[in-house]
Design goal:
Elements: H1 5-28, H2 31-37, E1 39-40, H3 48-51, H4 59-82, H5 86-98, H6 100-115, E2 122-123, H7 127-148, H8 151-174, H9 179-203, H10 209-236, E3 242-243, E4 246-247, H11 250-267
Antiparallel strand pairs: 1-2, 3-4
Helix pairs in contact: 1-4, 4-5, 4-7, 4-10, 5-7, 5-11, 6-11, 7-8, 7-10, 7-11, 8-9, 8-10
Membrane topology: Multi-pass membrane protein
InterPro entries: Rhomboid-like_sf (IPR035952)
Protein name: Rhomboid family protein
């Protein structure tokens, strides 16, 4: 189904509206109101499980999340347009925007309460939602691969992408990985690459120039999407976890990413 310019403009206005809401909440709400709307484990006001996600600690925190949301949200939307699954984007986006903040804050509360009992946990930030859209982008990328290729090709490509993302996080927090970790990564990447080659052989390698060019464009598109995913993941899991007295909630980011994957799969 072809998309009209009005439909696309309407969708983009929704994404712009989210950014406007984030900017407005940060710039226009008085500090006292922002403090009231932030999630505070000591008072545990249910509404703040949602509202806390739309508030930010400082300008840098806000800018980082706006850039991340625009990257993940816009690229996911473009992929959904390519798949002719605009409604899928709508369903997933609504759940990510309204449901993920609650899930992320509850999971963070549970994790920190178990690990650090009595810690006065206060959270602000849209990064859990950004992580959810990153998870959505991963699923959308695999859906794009599946549109033209076999289930096996999609699975092997998925393994390779996930290994790349996990490897990047591992290197971020451990520096030089251990021999065992490196060996497992090489083994997994090797098996996935051989699997992709085997699937390509069974499907028939392109023989004419047009088919080879089309395959090159498809591979280039996937590599571009993976690079966006990688930049998002590295932003969500930074090497330095504290800045300005605030702790980066990597637990919430991990939960948000996985929840985004689940929501995207179910919503489709």
């Amino acid at each position: 189904m072809a998309m009209s310019r009005q439909q696309v403009a309407g969708d983009l206005s929704l994404l712009t509206g989210v950014v406007t809401l984030l900017l407005g909440a940060h710039l226009l709400l008085p500090p006292a109101v922002q403090a009231t709307l932030s999630f505070d484990a000591r008072t545990f006001a249910p509404i703040t499980l949602l509202t806390g996600a739309y508030l930010h600690v400082n300008d840098a925190h806000l800018v980082g999340n706006v850039v991340g949301f625009c990257s993940a949200g816009l690229v996911s939307y473009i992929v959904c347009l390519q798949l002719d699954e605009r409604d899928w984007f709508h369903r997933t986006a609504v759940v990510c925007l309204l449901g993920l903040p609650v899930v992320v804050n509850l999971a963070s509360y549970a994790a920190f309460s178990l690990r650090y009992p009595g810690l006065p946990l206060t959270t602000r930030g849209f990064s859990g939602v950004v992580a959810g859209f990153a998870g959505f982008l991963l699923v959308a990328t695999l859906a794009l691969i599946r549109r033209r290729h076999t289930r096996g090709t999609t699975l092997y490509a998925g393994y390779l992408i996930v290994l790349t993302l996990l490897g990047a996080v591992l290197v971020t927090y451990t520096g030089v990985p251990s021999v065992a970790s490196t060996g497992l990564f090489v083994l997994g990447a090797g098996v996935s690459t051989l699997g992709l080659y085997g699937e390509a052989r069974r499907a028939g390698l392109p023989t004419d120039r047009t088919a080879r060019v089309r395959l090159a464009v498809e591979v280039g598109t996937v590599l571009l999407l993976v690079s966006v995913l990688l930049s998002l993941v590295l932003g969500l899991f930074p090497a330095t976890l504290t800045a300005g007295g605030w702790l980066t909630n990597v637990v919430g980011h991990g939960v948000g990413f996985l929840a985004g994957v689940v929501v995207a799969v179910v919503a489709r």
